Amino acid sequence: MLHLHRNTAMKKHILVLVSITAFIYACTESDDTGTSTNGFVGTWKLKATMVSPGGPVPFEPIESDKQIILNSDLTFTSNGEFCSMVSTETGSTTTGTYSTMDSLLMQDNCNMNVISYPTLKLEADTLIVSYLCIEDCAEKYIRR
Question: What InterPro entries does UniProt report for this protein, alphabetically (predicted)?
């Protein structure tokens, strides 16, 4: 009987030790809270736009000085604006925040609701900024 009691006690100790180890390991793992920048950080230069009149169309290369700088603190600055669809104009400094969790680009001083903010998508070293349009409209940036 004593031998059986020792085995049961030993199993409980091992179970407790494994549980504590698993808990400590889980607490040290990085939780993705949507604040990870995962490759977004950097300076991006506008290289192409796409505005569909209906149906799929390719991106058209353009010459533009528009760029956006995505910072590690989830803020951005740009020499162009993102309040309206596909604007290649430069000359005004704009600022705002971005979310990698929601994939949103939120320019300060825009009269937009959350549903109409441009979205961000990374494709290798290409950043796609898509706007809410009836048909597809987007800007393609390359990392500088």
Answer: Lipocalin-like
Distance, in Å, from the CA atom of 59 to the CA atom of 63, rounded to the nearest integer, reads 13
| Helix or strand (DSSP H, E) at 132 | none
Q: Locate 106 and state its tokens.
A: 């939120």
Q: What burial class does residue 108 get, using C-beta atoms within 10 Å of its C-beta: 0-12 exposed, 13-18 middle, 19+ buried?
A: exposed
In 3D space, the residue among 79, 93, 59, 91 whose CA is nearest the CA of residue 144 turns out to be: 79
pLDDT tens, residue by residue, 51-88:
999 889 999 999 999 999 999 999 999 999 898 776 77
Domain ranges of the chain: 1-30, 42-143
Number of H helices, E strands in the chain: 1, 9
Model confidence pLDDT, tens digit, residues 111-128: 776 668 899 999 988 999
Residues present in the chain in total: 144
Position of tokens 């998508």?
121
- Residue 25, judged by CB atoms within 10 A of its CB (0-12, 13-18, 19+), counts as exposed
Could you tell me the maximum CA-CA distance found in the chain, to the nearest angstrom?
Answer: 86
